[in-house]
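Entry:
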Amino acid sequence: MERIIIIGCGGAGKSTLARELGEKLDLPVVHLDKLFWKPGWVEMEKDAFDALLRIEVAKERWIMDGNFNRTISERVARCDTIIYLDFSRFACLMGVLKRVITTYGTVRPDMGEGCPERFDLDFLKWVWNFNKNKRESYYKMLNEVENVETIVLKNRRAVRLFLESLNQT
């Protein structure tokens, strides 16, 4: 595993897994939210984001967490591993609520500078509908990729076991 993308619903722990994997595998971590969001939760212009992403994707080794479906094919074409955190709606909502409670008002290390954690009802709705709107297309993509290892983890215990299995190799 040299070029890994981590996808899944908000609150599933994509950024946390990316950081932990980065430490275990000695790989640089690229948080797509950190590239995308400008201070004050302002979205980066599409062309500027794409240019930054191309620079990161061209590198030899990385872990990228985040969905950003508009650019996923570019990352999939270059990765050797896709990890899909296919968690339940409840687990993701609990993850988001825990994150808001523990980091409210602060800027997380995986987020753009000047973007403090906040409570966002629209984001909660996106999480609520994520599996209904995205699960089928993610599994379709996973079934169609060639020469890419695909790993689907269904809950936090599976993530923990996966990380522990890396200690044994």
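Helices lie at 14-25, 32-36, 46-58, 72-78, 89-103, 121-144, 156-167.
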